[in-house]
Amino acid sequence: MVQPFLGDGPAETAYELRVMASPTRAAASRIAATGAYAPAKVVSNADLEKLVDTSDQWITERTGIKERRVAAPGEAASDMALQAARRALETARLSADDLDMIIVGTISADMPLPACAAFLQRKLGAKNIPSFDVAAACAGFIYAMSIGDQYIRTGACKNVLIVGVELLSRELNWNDRATCVLFGDGAGAAVLSPATDDTGVLSTRLHTDSSLAESLCIPAGGSLEPITQESINQSRDKVNMIGRDIFKVAVRNLTSASRDALDEAGLTANDIDWVVPHQANLRILSQVADRLEIPLEKFVLNIDRYGNTSSASIPIALDEALRDGRIQPGQRVLMCALGAGISWASALVTISP
Ligand code: ACO
């Protein structure tokens, strides 16, 4: 059941797409396997103290981040995506030939054109299957999951590879202490396949409210403002962010999207075994946990080790928690993310055997 719905925000900017399992359609999708990759190079808060006027104490207290990974020179987003995708495919015991679609959530593709997914398709050795990017920033992985889930529910696809990958270290102004300390590089992937029982993707909810679009953006380098020497001098070709604005809306919207997903599924906070959230800021997540009345111990957290990897953060955290056995088959997982757009999303998934 797909329900276009005008949300609570201004009618011209707020939009929400809800997707719920429907008994009249083909099977929902399940997460058949996951994989993740983070580049080897670790950049600690102490390393950043040498670059900008900041401190380990400020970064740790304000964000929860202790270190992040940075891609090697010459390493592209599709290279990182490839590593994560191969691990997911190996775990699912599938080959690239078994895939029907590749969806990559990213805002830091190899090039503005073509899609990162096209390069990933070539590197994987997949042939002729639809392969495209979704630019929903930190919400990109849940957006990709929602789209993949739809193609499986309709029976149009069997196996869909969904990826969240970001190489934001190349999109940052390394002189701007307000942004350069926050982000890291990485990739996570999942294979979606048809569910064989009542586990799998229960629902996904996608939202965008463009009234704060400029609060987190890369102003130059697109059709509106082609790159000039002046835009480079002003770092308008890099991530610009008004963090305080995003913080407030993140707490509010992550809470409401999670609560709505639970209400709609007839579940309560007690029915959730794990929350796998986008890892932007530990203080945001603590406040969301308080408001949802879900203990922070049920949140899968790795922001201290990776920082904010945007669309990659949920699949990296999910992969870690599945592989180390924290998340078990049959358990119910809530995912939620918010990023530039402002786009945010939630997903409810029961982990399949
Ligand atoms: N080190 C030391 N001081 C700093 C640093 C730093 N790295 N960065 C900022 N400051 C200073 C500021 O200059 C300011 O100083 P002033 O009071 O003298 O002006 C002071 O710290 C407080 O700044 P705030 O911006 O108010 O700090 P805040 O507590 O809001 O924390 C932060 C900033 C961490 C960015 C927070 O606002 C945040 O996490 N926002 C949300 C970010 C987010 O979720 N983004 C969305 C996802 S990203 C995506 O979609 C790609």
What does this structure look like?
By secondary structure, the protein is α+β, with helices and mostly antiparallel strands. It has a single domain (1-353), classed as Peroxisomal Thiolase, Chain A, domain 1 (3-Layer(aba) Sandwich), CATH 3.40.47.10. It is 31% helix and 25% strand. The strands form 4 sheets. The chain has a 6-stranded mixed beta sheet, with helices on both faces. The chain is globular and about 55 Å long. The site of acetyl coenzyme *A (ACO) has 22 residues, from α2, α6 and α8.
CATH architecture: 3-Layer(aba) Sandwich
Helical fraction: 25-40%
Q: What would CATH call the homologous superfamily?
A: Thiolase/Chalcone synthase
Radius of gyration: 19 Å
How are the strands ordered across the major sheet?
A: 1-2-10-15-14-13
Q: Order of SSEs, N→C? A: EEEEHHEHEHEHEHEEEHEHEHHHEE
Average pLDDT number? 93
Number of domains: 1
Instruction: Specify the overall morphology.
Output: globular
Would you summarize the structure shown here?
With 353 residues, the chain is α+β, with helices and mostly antiparallel strands. It is built from eleven helices and 15 strands.
